[in-house]
DNA sequence: TGTTTATAGTAGCAATTGCTATTATATGCA
DNA sequence: TGCATATAATAGCAATTGCTACTATAAACA
């Protein structure tokens, strides 16, 4: 019974990704790319390394994700004027529009996922899972206030 | 705020997998392989197709996972006497021992993940996430009683 | 029985990911 | 300043995954 929570969370997250991908297939971006764009929207001008940390992929993986998103006209790389090794990342207007357009879909998905739950239960779910995430997080050095939590 | 639950679940599940993989690195199997073995333990003699459904990967992916696990001496393929196209899968004694040995680790991980939660809160967490999973599940045709839920 | 259709599993290919090594640049320090 | 070390990003390679097509076998049915 004790692994249940790990199994359960993984199952549920996978179903979430699957539902997300099924609904946004025509937009041409995946759940992971969407994740990148959402984080980037809140951190315009971030470098690749820190963004890789945020979405928890390897820097090289992020580098290649950005290659594709830049080619698709959704992300722009600008040279960092203070460090010639680094790129600063920006969302293009097109990506903004895309995210806005997807907003309804993702809202509907969240609604569907929590169908039958009262507002209090939804709040409780988020609070409890949030505590589990907090327990599991390795990034203890990063103050909680710095972390992405709500309202994404 | 509405996507929070999707983000949160994915974050948490990822952290879970990461913690799992970090703790079981020396065992040589990944979280996904562990998942396969755990399901297989409860369904000895299952065919590849249904097991692929259970762990939600494509049949070809499962086929190759079984290739590797068979080579590692953890899973055994036996010909189905009633259908010469099919294989029946069995856990080897070695896999049983491996799972038993990992049990302590996974128990400890579940404990750590839910640290600070009361028994009531843990139960509530499981119940709420379980309802979300149920909402998201496409396999509506499969009666709930048939599905893997607890005690894994 | 013989033919059509469905099913179990696998091979080829392409896409994605991460490990390791490498390049270019910046920083620390004598 | 000049050299050693650290850092940002990327290329090469290997592993894994899934899509599509394929083979072998079973089931349905005329």
Automatic annotation (TrEMBL), chains A, B:
This protein's UniProt keywords: DNA-binding, Transcription, Transcription regulation
InterPro entries: HTH_MarR-typ, Tscrpt_reg_MarR-type_CS, WH-like_DNA-bd_sf, WH_DNA-bd_sf
One function term, GO molecular function aspect: DNA-binding transcription factor activity
Annotated Gene3D superfamilies: Winged helix-like DNA-binding domain superfamily/Winged helix DNA-binding domain
Domain (HTH marR-type) ranges: 2-134
Pfam families reported for this sequence: MarR
Keyword Transcription in annotation: yes
Leader sequence segment: none
SUPFAM superfamilies referenced in this protein's UniProt entry, alphabetically: Winged helix' DNA-binding domain (SSF46785)
PANTHER family: TRANSCRIPTIONAL REGULATOR, MARR, TRANSCRIPTIONAL REPRESSOR OF EMRAB OPERON
Name this polypeptide is given: DNA-binding transcriptional regulator, MarR family
Upper classification of the organism: Bacteria, Pseudomonadati, Pseudomonadota, Alphaproteobacteria, Sphingomonadales
């Amino acid at each position: 019974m004790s692994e249940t929570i790990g199994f359960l969370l993984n199952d549920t997250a996978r179903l979430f990704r699957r539902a997300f991908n099924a609904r946004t297939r025509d937009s041409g971006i995946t759940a992971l790319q969407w994740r990148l764009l959402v984080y980037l929207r809140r951190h315009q001008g971030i470098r690749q390394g820190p963004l890789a940390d945020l979405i928890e992929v390897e820097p090289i993986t992020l580098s290649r994700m950005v290659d594709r998103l830049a080619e698709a006209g959704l992300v722009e790389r600008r040279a960092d004027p203070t460090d010639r090794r680094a790129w600063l990342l920006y969302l293009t207007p097109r990506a903004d529009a895309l995210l806005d357009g997807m907003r309804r879909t993702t809202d509907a998905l969240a609604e569907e996922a929590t169908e039958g739950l009262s507002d209090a239960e939804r709040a409780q779910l988020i609070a409890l899972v949030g505590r589990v995430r907090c327990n599991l997080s390795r990034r203890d050095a990063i103050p909680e206030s710095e972390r992405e939590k709500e309202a994404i």
